[in-house]
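Show me any protein, fold above all:
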Amino acid sequence: MPGDDMPVLLNALHRHRLITDHTLSGFVGLAWSHAERPDLALSRGRWRTLVTAAGHRA
């Protein structure tokens, strides 16, 4: 599923500290909305971590 690549990429960038939280905030919503199955692309815990790091409430 091509749309599921973006969440995986953002997750890897965040885990390896290669993306700032500010930059992450501009992409986490897009990653969720463009993934065919966001719940399968990343675990609920990882989504919560990304959303929280981006400055949103999960």
In short: The mean pLDDT is 92.
